[in-house]
Structure formats: structure tokens, C-alpha cells
Amino acid sequence: MSKKLVVIGVLCLALVVAVMPLAGACAPKAQPVQVLKIGMMNPSTGKAAEKGLPMMNGNNDVIKYINTERGGAGGYPIDATVLDSNYDPTKVVTIVKGFMTSGCLLFTTAASAEMSPAKASANEAGFPGISSFSAPSLYRPPAHIYGQTPDYGDDAITFANYYLQNIWKGTGKPKFALLMLNNPTGYGARDAFKAEADQLGIEVVSMDEHAATTTSEIDTLTRIKADHPDVNVLYISSTPQPAKVIIGNAKELGIYPGVTIGVCHAGMTKALIDLAGADVVEGVYGVYPCVSWGDNVPGMAKMAEYCQKYHPENVGNADYMVSWAQGLIVAKALELAVKNVGYDALAKGDAAAWQAVETQGIQKLQNFDVEGLHGPVNYTPGDNRLDKFNRVFQITNGKITQLTDWVEAPLIKYEEFDWFK
């Protein structure tokens, strides 16, 4: 090869190298994908996994449905980071701070025990959160945390009223014993009874706490039986595993059948029957804020389709249904925010975006129908419960059977009581 050809080749190569940056500069830049980021947490492992795992599955499945069949929220895909809290308060705080720094517009929890440690950071920053299951302490007085469904205080009042109107046949005040989980699940019922027992016309003769890991409440029940042999009601504000232990112990001691047992919506699920056995919990009453699985409501078929396809083990599980409905609510709030302020106002996922989602999304929810899966969703100023309707159920022949239509839970301003902290 001649020196002349070599020189020409070198010059050509140099020219190509020199032009490459210019060509790259002229090429169109890839645009970032426009999504609406949210954070969701569930106790899918740990002490409440019997509830948290179905709820995580429900969250994942409904977001998949919203994105694939509904085109996201307001025309934008929802990018959901769904994490396991392990029912661990320390982990919860780390997770919610991570949601805030990663551009999420809002966050959700499954449990009141998750939202309780999360609320301080969220309220201080103005970061809106929605808890599927809640307690009065999460949003009284109202700030930036919202309850998807009636809270555990509402459960206690709803059940007490039902008992008085439909079961109680005696004279005077019926005697209630409260067995409460040692976190907001239990404390919500405690606070409701403290606030409303006199007005209801019931006497709460004992309030006893238990842990989520309890394996026996024999000592507590033995003491209640000895001190209050005429007790009429054991009200259990707890999750399925501890509720199973308490009801089983009550049967061992001959307390039940005999007294009436009521369970809050945290415990009144298919998991309670599966864990305890249908014969043990036969006749137990409870409160739950959703319809029954298989009811003829508009959203049932699509939810059941996704559950059967992706998580058939959760078919029939009401907690899955709650999380599915939670996703529908989140999508509607995001849709409203996009409509009212535009995507650009939300894109950064910063404090201004959080405020926009809260005031122009969550607080604009009016008569939103979660396709019949639970009561209508309405934001009312001064009341951060989005759905205020419960139903009373009873376990009959191994099935959770509906006894009442929707019962609206009245607003209780707990912060007006000196004892409420």
C-alpha cells in the first residue's frame, strides 16, 4: 500500500471521529417516560403476613389492571413501588422517607400499625398517605393522612349498636370486655369505647392488651371470667392470628358459646376461619367495610379475574378486595390531580406536587364509586375518613355471612377529649 493511501485513510478516520460528536448532538434525545409515581407498603412478611400478603397481591394486581386496561390515571401509567414493611416500625419509617425522596406523589399502607410510625414524617413534610385500615390516632386531628375505610373505632361503635338493637335481651347495661392488640388496631376500639360507652348505654368492664405474637390468652380470660362472670360480650380488636388464639381459649374455658363474640374488621376475614377452623369460630360476629366475595357488584368480575389469574390462593379473601379498591381510589385521585393541575405540576414529585395531589386529587374525591366493592368515597373537610360505611357479618357454616346493609359511622372528634393523645 502506498504512503499516499495510508495518509488518506488516516485523514478519513480522523474526520469520522471528529464528526461523531456532532452527529450525536444532532440526534434527538430520548425523552423521560412520563409516569405517576406512588409508593405502597404492606406487611407481607412478619407478624401480620396473613393479612399483608393478600393485600400486597391486591395492590400489585390492581395497578397492573389500571395500567394495561385503563391506560393508567389521566392518561399516564402509574409507577408503583410496592414494598414489604414486615410490620416493623423502623422499616416503615425508612420506607416512607424513601418514597418521599424518590419522587412518589403519595403513599399507601395496608395497616394502621404501619401508618402510625409513618405519619410523623409524612405530616411534617406534607406528604399525603392513605391507609386501607386505620385508627382515629392516624388522622385526629386531620392532617395529611387519610383512611380508606371506617376505622377501628368505627367498628367498635357499629358492632355495639348492632348488639344493642339485635342481640341484647337483658335489662340495664350489657357488659363488654375488650381484648385489644397492643397497637392502633386495638387502641382504636379502646378510644371509641372511652368516648362513647356512656352514650351507647354499655359498660366496658375490662380492657386488656395482647401482642400479635400471642400464643395464649388463657390467663387474661380466666381473670375476666372470675372478675366478671356476668360479662355479655368479648370484643376483639385484633388481627386473625391473635383473634384465633383468643376465641380458641374462650372455648377451652367454656366462656364461648355463652357470651357473644365480636371481631373488628382486621380480624373478620377468611384467614380467621382458615386459622381457627370453622367449628371454633362458628357464630362469631364481626364488622367489615367491604361486600362479600362473589356479590353481584360491577367491580367483582374483573377483580376476581385478576385474582384467579395471578394469585388464585387469595380467591375469597376480603383483604385482597380492600387493596384492589385502594388502587382504584389512588388512580382516581391521580386522575383528578392531572385534570385539575396538569401533569407538569406533578412531574417532579416534590412538596408542591404532593400538595397538588392532596388538594386537587384526594380532597376532590366526591361520590366516587369503587365499583360497588365498598361504600362510596367522599372527602369531607374535617373528616379524613374517605369511606364511612360498615356492614355487620356473622360466621355461619364456615362462611362470613352478611347481616346488615351499609351502616354509616358518625364522626367522633377524639381530639376534643382530654385523655386523647
Explain how this protein is built.
This protein is α/β, with parallel strands linked by helices and 421 residues long. The protein has two domains: 207 residues, Response regulator (Rossmann fold), CATH 3.40.50; 144 residues, 3-Layer(aba) Sandwich (Rossmann fold), CATH 3.40.50.2300. Strands 6, 7, 8, 9, 10, 11, 12 and 13 form an eight-stranded mixed β-sheet that branches. Strands 2-1-3-4-5 form a five-stranded parallel β-sheet, with helices on both faces. The protein starts with a helix and ends in a 13-residue tail after the last strand.
Task: Supply database-style keywords.
421 residues; alpha/beta; Rossmann fold; 2 domains; five-stranded parallel β-sheet; 15% strand
In short:
The chain is an alpha/beta fold. The protein has helices at 3-26, 49-69, 89-101, 112-125, 152-166, 184-200, 218-227, 240-252, 270-276, 278-281, 300-310, 318-341, 351-360, and strands spanning 36-42, 78-84, 107-109, 129-131, 145-147, 175-181, 203-210, 233-237, 260-263, 285-288, 389-396, 399-402, 407-408. Strands 6, 7, 8, 9, 10, 11, 12 and 13 form an eight-stranded mixed beta sheet that branches. A five-stranded parallel beta sheet has the order 2-1-3-4-5, with helices on both faces.
Q: Topology, please?
A:
Blueprint: H1 3-26, E1 36-42, H2 49-69, E2 78-84, H3 89-101, E3 107-109, H4 112-125, E4 129-131, E5 145-147, H5 152-166, E6 175-181, H6 184-200, E7 203-210, H7 218-227, E8 233-237, H8 240-252, E9 260-263, H9 270-276, H10 278-281, E10 285-288, H11 300-310, H12 318-341, H13 351-360, E11 389-396, E12 399-402, E13 407-408
